[in-house]
């Protein structure tokens, strides 16, 4: 069987498996209710109502950082729109983009899993990765998205189908359905093309842009921003997850025109080459230069990271990001509020991640305070 047929067949079959797994809850609803099940139903309805009345968040980024944020927010509201960059060139996503001409599905898959009600089960299925044969390196979730795209003939429709299929608490949108490529120019005049080259030279970048420059965002992205209660940028790779979304002029215009709090979540660590030797305000200056304004708030970590984790990350060229006193004064002069908190989550004994619950609670508090201040005003 040709490589393309193998991939499409596998993706379609996996989609069927996931579909078959999902209806179990609906089958239980037809059983005769007992007192305990009625109480659970009442409690479940109350929780669902609370989630439906939660604030509307638009989360902009990509990669692991965005999916970590979404996993925490879904416990507080169903009104979440994840806007995901489509410039990924690495791994399975990059291969599918090159071989099939499909937009990179990896970050979208991660966000769908993060917003699903049973993310642990879905993680095992959608993030399973083949390790041999023609499918070596491909994840099941990427193949499902590819199959859905082939069946619908449209990437945005394929993502929408997966939104419905997985019954996620929110919505995941690609920022655009056009094929766009990152470009940049370094301080010494070198022109770079593509996410990987830009990532290798990020800390030396002078300016960045997308080609084609005429690319348009998905209309639903603009509608989501216009109807939001808060815009959240990050966490995630600065040049390859967050900024690519803001390089679409209509997106930045919609964000600037929205009268609501804009929040940037600082990373826990720098990234080798991409942001090495850059402090937190250097990250924020790039955000402000592309967005055209400084975010209203920045959320930073103040918890010390264990030394064994630091050593492991330093071997990869990464350093911790803490806010200095000089940086605090700089942000104060630029009317950017600082929220400093315990944001460190030590995952699986080897990875640093943002603490998704703590992060979500901070964002809920900012949204609540903003609403209350407006009502008093």
Description:
With 377 residues, this protein is an alpha/beta fold. The chain has 17 helices and 12 strands. The protein has a domain at 54-88 and 110-116 and 167-376: Rossmann fold (3-Layer(aba) Sandwich), CATH 3.40.50.10680. It is 50% helix and 15% strand. Strands 3-2-1-7-8-9-10 form a 7-stranded parallel sheet, sandwiched between helices. Strands 5-4-6 form a 3-stranded antiparallel sheet. Helix 6 (106-115) runs antiparallel to helix 7. The N and C termini lie far apart (67 Å).
Concise account of the structure shown:
By secondary structure, the chain is of the alpha/beta class. Helix content is 50%, strand content 15%. It is built from 17 helices and twelve strands.
Largest sheet, order of strands side by side? 3-2-1-7-8-9-10
Q: Do you know the CATH topology of one domain?
A: Rossmann fold
Kindly, what is the distance between the CA atoms of the first and last residues, rounded to a whole number of angstroms? Answer: 67 Å
Please count the beta strands (DSSP E, at least 2 residues each): 12
Main β-sheet description: 7 strands, parallel
Using the coordinates above, name the CATH class of one domain.
Alpha Beta
CATH homologous superfamily classification of one domain = CofD-like domains
Can you give the helix content as a percent range?
Answer: 40-55%
How many helices?
A: 17
- The topology string of helices and strands comes to HHHEHEHHHHHEEEHEHEHHEHEHHEEEH
Query: How would you sum up the global shape?
Result: globular
CATH architecture of one domain: 3-Layer(aba) Sandwich
Mean pLDDT: 87
Strand residues, percent: 5-15%
Structural class: alpha/beta
């Amino acid at each position: 069987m040709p490589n393309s047929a193998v991939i499409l067949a596998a993706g379609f079959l996996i989609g069927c498996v996931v579909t078959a797994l999902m209806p179990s809850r609906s089958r239980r609803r037809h059983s005769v209710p007992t007192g305990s099940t009625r109480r659970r139903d009442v409690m479940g309805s109350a929780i669902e109502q609370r989630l439906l009345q939660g604030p509307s968040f638009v989360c902009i980024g990509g990669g692991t950082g965005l999916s970590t944020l979404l996993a925490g927010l879904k416990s507080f509201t169903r009104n979440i729109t994840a806007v995901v960059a489509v410039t990924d060139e690495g791994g399975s996503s990059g291969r599918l983009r090159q071989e099939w001409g499909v937009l990179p599905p990896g970050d979208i898959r991660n966000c769908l899993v993060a917003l699903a009600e049973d993310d642990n089960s879905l993680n095992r299925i959608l993030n399973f990765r083949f390790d041999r044969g023609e499918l070596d390196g491909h994840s099941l979730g990427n193949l499902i998205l590819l199959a859905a795209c082939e069946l619908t003939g449209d990437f945005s429709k394929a993502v929408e189908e997966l939104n419905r299929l997985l019954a996620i608490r929110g919505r995941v949108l690609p920022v655009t359905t056009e094929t766009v490529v990152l470009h940049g120019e370094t301080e010494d005049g070198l022109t770079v093309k593509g996410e990987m080259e830009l990532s290798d030279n990020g800390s030396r970048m002078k300016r960045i842009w997308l080609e084609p420059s005429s690319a348009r965002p998905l209309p639903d992205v603009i509608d989501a921003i216009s109807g939001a209660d808060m815009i959240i940028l990050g966490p995630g790779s600065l040049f390859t997850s967050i900024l690519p979304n803001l390089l679409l002029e209509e997106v930045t215009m919609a964000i600037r025109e929205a009268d609501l709090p804009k929040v940037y979540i600082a990373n826990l660590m720098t990234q080798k080459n991409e942001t090495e030797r850059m402090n937190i305000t250097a990250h924020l200056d790039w955000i402000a230069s592309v967005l055209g304004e400084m975010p209203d708030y920045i959320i930073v970590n103040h918890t010390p990271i264990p030394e064994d984790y630091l050593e492991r990350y330093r071997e990869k060229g990464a350093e911790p990001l803490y806010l200095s006193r000089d940086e605090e004064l700089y942000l104060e002069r630029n009317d950017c509020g600082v929220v400093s908190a315990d944001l460190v989550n030590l995952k699986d004994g080897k990875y640093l991640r943002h603490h998704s619950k703590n992060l979500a609670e901070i964002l809920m508090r900012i949204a609540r305070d903003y609403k209350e201040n407006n009502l008093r005003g």
